[in-house]
Structure formats: structure tokens, C-alpha cells
From TrEMBL:
This is Stage 0 sporulation protein A homolog. The keyword Transcription applies. Keywords: DNA-binding, Phosphoprotein, Transcription, Transcription regulation, Two-component regulatory system. It holds the Pfam family Trans_reg_C. Residues 133-233 bind DNA. Gene3D superfamilies: 3.40.50.2300, 6.10.250.690, Winged helix-like DNA-binding domain superfamily/Winged helix DNA-binding domain. It comes from Selenihalanaerobacter shriftii. The modification 4-aspartylphosphate is found at D54.
């Protein structure tokens, strides 16, 4: 898989260069545009994975760009992060209502923007995998997304809904570290008032079920000390 491509759109060159530098440092491919019409041209003719879009743009405003994208079936699911001025709360709300996935207010922390980019792309990849694949297979594990069941060596193993979600997210992200906070947000929701020990307890249960039912006797889920968990990449 090639680098994920991000389109950065802002009429302030210094902001574009700042965002571009920080995203490229994280390994992303970055293309840029300085007005709304140029942004739409790139979205329509290039394979863009995420759009960072300023609201105040020449030729075509950010809200119009967002509306146009969401009304075009071929590109309607493109993730969009909007850049907004701090005092423009009405525009932020309107942007979200039009379908922006997130917004960042100016002046912003490049580190925060990169973190939001990673989170949104990760979610977009999860959603795409779920739409494209009815079944996830890793080693002897088969996760049927339609039947909501898990098989180990073709034998069904009972997992609770939360355990199913945990194993699915880890398997989809094979080789990547998922933090406890990320798992907590994705599975229990932003407003869940538990703590990360909840994740540890559920991971322990998932591991136990895998161990009890595995023919290959593999340790599928690795602990990354102080960070979270990683599903082992299998050769």
C-alpha cells in the first residue's frame, strides 16, 4: 500500500507549508491548493485520502467545497477536517452539519492536527475494511462481520459484543499499536466514564478465549508496555 495522500487547502502559504512539513514528517504524501476551486479539481482528479480545508478561501469557500463533495456520490465519503477561526463558532457548526468530520481552530498546534488526521484516517480505514470485506482472516482466526461470529480453526467461539469489537479492531490493525484510550473511545464511546483498566480486563478475557480454543498455540495479542496493545503480524 502506498502513502496516504492528504490535500491541504488554505490561502495562507505559511499555514500550508507548516501543515505540509508536519504531515510529511509523519510519512504522509501531501498535495496543496490555495483556493476552493483548485481544491475541488484535485479531489476530482487525484486519489485523495483526507482533506484539510480552510473555511475562508478565494473563488469558492470551504463550506461550498464541503457541500459539493458531500453531494457527489463518487467522493462523498472523503474525510474532511476544517480549519476555522476561533471566533467563527457558527461556521464550525455549519461545517459539521454539512458533513465535516472534525475541525481545528486557528491558531492550532501542528501536533494536535496530526493526531486528529491519524485518528480520522484510522477510522476511515476501519470503515472501508468493514464495507469491502465480509470476513477478516488472520492465521487461524476468522471474523465474520455479517454474522458477528468468530471462528478459530473453523470452530465457533463465543465472544461478548465488546470482546468481538476489541478483537476486530486489533485484527484489522495487525502490526499497529492501539492505545488503551483509543480502544476505550472506539468501543465504549467518548462519554464512557470508566477508565482504561476496563480495556485491560476485556483484553485478558479475549486472550484467554483465544488460548483455550487455539490449535496453533500462538500469542496473538501483544502488550506494548505503557501504551496499549498490538495484534501480532503473522507471516
Amino acid at each position: 500500500m502506498g502513502k496516504e495522500k492528504i490535500l491541504v487547502v488554505d490561502d495562507e502559504e505559511n499555514i500550508v507549508e507548516l501543515v505540509k512539513f508536519n504531515l510529511e514528517k509523519e510519512g504522509y504524501e501531501v498535495v496543496v491548493a490555495y483556493d476552493g476551486q483548485a481544491a475541488l479539481d484535485k479531489v476530482n482528479h487525484e486519489e485523495i485520502n483526507l482533506l484539510i480545508l480552510d473555511l475562508m478561501l478565494p473563488k469558492l469557500g470551504g463550506l461550498d467545497v464541503c457541500r459539493t463533495i458531500r453531494n457527489n456520490q463518487e467522493i462523498s465519503e472523503l474525510p474532511i477536517i476544517m480549519l476555522t477561526a476561533k471566533e467563527k463558532e457558527v461556521d464550525r457548526v455549519l461545517g459539521l452539519e454539512l458533513g465535516a468530520d472534525d475541525y481545528v481552530t486557528k491558531p492550532f498546534s501542528p501536533r494536535e492536527l496530526v493526531a486528529r488526521v491519524k485518528a480520522i484516517l484510522r477510522r476511515a480505514n476501519f470503515d472501508k475494511l468493514e464495507k469491502d470485506d465480509e470476513q477478516i482472516e488472520v492465521g487461524e482466526i476468522k471474523i465474520d462481520l455479517n454474522k458477528y461470529e468468530i471462528l478459530l480453526s473453523d470452530k465457533e467461539v463465543n465472544f461478548t459484543p465488546k470482546e468481538f469489537q476489541l478483537l476486530k479492531l486489533l485484527a484489522i490493525s495487525s502490526g499497529k499499536v492501539l492505545t488503551r484510550n483509543f480502544l476505550l473511545r472506539e468501543i465504549w464511546g467518548y462519554n464512557y466514564d470508566g477508565d482504561t483498566r476496563t480495556v485491560d480486563v476485556h483484553i485478558r478475557r479475549v486472550r484467554q478465549k483465544l488460548k483455550e480454543n487455539s490449535v496453533e498455540d500462538l500469542e496473538y495479542i501483544e502488550t506494548v508496555r505503557g501504551v496499549g496493545y498490538r495484534f501480532k503480524e503473522l507471516e
